[in-house]
Predict the structure.
Amino acid sequence: MRLSTTVATLAIGLAATARAAAPAAHAAPAAPAAAAADTCLSCHATLSDERLRKPAELAKNDIHLTQGITCAGCHGGDPAAADRAAAMDPRKGFVGVPAPRAIPEMCGSCHSNAAYMLRYAPNIPTDQLAQYRTSKHGIALAKGSTDVAVCSSCHGAHGVRPPSDARSPVYPTQIVATCARCHADVALMNKYGIKGNEVAEYEKSVHYAALTQKNDLSAPTCKSCHGAHGATPPGVSSVANVCGTCHVSQLEKFDQSPHKDAFAAMDQPACEACHSNHAIVHPQDSWIGVGDKQVCAACHSAGDAGAKAAAAISGALASVVAAEATVGARVAHVKRAGMLMDPAEVKLQDAHQAYIMATVEIHTVTPTLVEKQTNAALADTVAADKDAAAAEREIRFRRTGLFISLAVIALAMVTLIFKIRSMER
Ligand code: HEC
Ligand code: HEC
Ligand code: HEC
Ligand code: HEC
Ligand code: HEC
Ligand code: HEC
Ligand code: HEC
Ligand code: HEC
Ligand code: HEC
């Protein structure tokens, strides 16, 4: 507590200094002038021990330096004193290397001080420390664990960059590795009754593939589902909401299903039952049913209402898949024969769209609702099939027409030859 008070006092003192110096800083935005006078920085930059020099080297990439905050901003001491002992004098608030337990308070002394942050960066929220205290990390830290993440485990202590910087350890494409430093350490995780396979499982998911292969920054990383500062498992009742922030339609359909109340009564997280939580893969029609490896089998068995619904749903989907395949092939065939098939192709696209809607509708597990979509899809394939049939008739007609005209030409030629011969004679 003594430390936090010291740092808080220091932060306020620093704020006052910065305010006094504000006009100068504005006149020279890069503001290296303040940094040059900083003895902590200049002395540490010359030290041969890498452990002591590195923080000074990283300072030039530190977001804090843009506001003139250097070493003393976090460590305290007197950045104007040239003498080592005077600069690093505990009586001037110098704290040396903070213990993990003290770090959230150190960072929070500025970051949860709304009045202070407002003066520098009004758009940065000031709730990190408050959230952190509610997280599994914060709770364990308060109980004395030194294994958990503190602010600097995720952001670094030196060379701190804004989260929007692609080199920041909390940037979407970097964050998995940041959490993995501890969460992929099975021995460490087992100490806390956690499997430690969460990262490996997540790396098998469509989400991870979208992030790393398609560079899709909208795909969820650890912090999208767990939160960053308030990191905690979502808990049974909120899993659906977490997934539903991105998969809105599926959540809406799930909420219409008999599963909504049934799962809640069973303490069964909504989407996880069929999709798992970390190793989420691309789902397929073949999942629906009560056979081996089919998702409904976890809770339903042959003959019950769920199994019957599954059979009806998978039958409806299968009929569309079959129709799309045969009609698609027929349309492609007449197209190769030279016919313009654009309208039929549009109908097939509509059919596929309705089929995709049906795969969303399966979340209601209500056959009549799924069939509404699959029937629409089938109607589109029937219409496309009619176009193909008409085109085939057209081809036959053209072939017959061609045959007749060829016959007429041949007849004319033969007559002509006879005529020429009779004239020659
Ligand atoms: C004239 C050189 C000099 C100045 C000025 C100086 N330091 Fe140091 N600092 C050192 C040396 C040498 C060490 C390692 C030996 C020691 O701990 O005294 C060190 C150690 C440290 C450590 C690590 C302590 C530990 O326990 O490992 C921190 C943190 C630190 N300095 C921060 C600061 C800050 C903040 C300032 C400015 C307020 C500052 N230093 C000013 C030379 C300097
Ligand atoms: C934003 C806050 C912050 C600033 C600014 C900061 N430090 Fe630190 N420093 C920390 C924290 C937190 C640690 C604890 C170790 C860790 O988590 O990496 C630390 C650790 C250290 C250590 C010990 C490193 C080790 O591996 O044992 C040294 C030396 C040090 N700081 C020096 C400096 C110097 C010199 C500066 C200025 C160039 C500076 N720090 C600026 C927060 C800061
Ligand atoms: C002396 C006050 C102070 C302390 C102590 C401090 N910060 Fe900061 N920090 C700031 C200010 C002011 C900014 C805004 C800089 C800007 O955007 O111009 C900032 C910005 C940041 C940002 C970038 C936020 C963004 O969205 O751009 C991160 C991340 C950050 N700090 C992390 C930390 C961590 C981690 C610690 C502790 C190791 C820490 N800070 C300690 C004052 C402080
Ligand atoms: C478990 C990892 C983790 C810990 C611990 C952590 N952060 Fe963060 N922090 C993040 C991530 C990830 C972001 C990116 C923004 C987001 O998604 O919330 C972030 C963003 C920030 C920002 C920028 C917020 C913004 O919206 O611009 C600040 C400031 C910050 N953290 C400060 C802190 C402070 C102070 C602490 C300690 C009390 C801390 N962080 C602890 C992971 C962490
Ligand atoms: C420095 C190591 C470290 C880092 C980095 C770290 N964690 Fe943790 N985390 C832990 C430890 C240790 C626990 C166990 C705490 C407990 O259960 O008391 C934990 C617990 C958790 C829990 C609670 C699990 C449960 O079942 O109780 C979640 C969720 C979590 N971390 C998410 C994250 C996320 C997301 C990140 C990255 C943004 C992250 N952690 C980064 C060490 C870390
Ligand atoms: C798509 C959402 C999602 C993503 C992404 C995600 N998780 Fe989870 N995670 C969950 C859900 C859901 C649970 C289970 C919560 C429950 O059942 O109450 C969970 C549980 C956990 C647990 C607790 C496990 C236990 O045995 O108690 C940890 C630790 C964890 N996740 C870490 C991570 C890490 C690290 C990452 C990144 C590699 C990550 N998660 C990515 C959704 C996600
Ligand atoms: C932050 C947004 C976000 C969150 C949260 C999220 N997802 Fe996703 N999800 C995506 C994105 C983006 C894709 C698309 C990946 C791609 O393009 O391959 C996706 C893909 C999927 C897919 C595969 C779709 C397909 O057609 O192959 C499934 C299944 C899925 N998510 C389920 C879940 C579940 C279950 C949860 C909660 C545990 C969840 N998602 C949480 C954004 C999210
Ligand atoms: C009862 C099992 C079950 C539950 C519960 C479930 N899903 Fe699905 N989900 C499936 C099946 C089966 C498919 C594959 C449909 C297909 O392609 O035929 C699927 C497909 C998906 C897809 C891929 C796109 C699509 O709709 O075809 C996403 C995204 C998705 N589910 C998200 C969710 C979310 C979010 C939740 C929770 C609100 C959830 N699912 C709950 C079984 C389930
Ligand atoms: C995690 C367990 C679980 C899974 C997985 C699951 N269900 Fe259910 N389902 C239930 C429970 C519990 C009920 C409500 C009690 C009951 O009627 O059996 C229910 C009810 C139903 C009902 C309503 C039954 C009625 O009597 O009106 C249908 C239909 C249904 N499920 C279909 C499915 C289909 C299709 C799947 C696979 C895509 C599936 N369920 C997967 C647990 C599950």
The pocket of heme C (ligand 3) is lined by residues 11, 14, 63-64, 66-67, 69, 73-74, 106-107, 109-111, 120-121, 124, 151-152, 155, 157, 160, 162-163 (CB under 6 Å). Residues 1-36 have pLDDT under 50 and may be disordered.
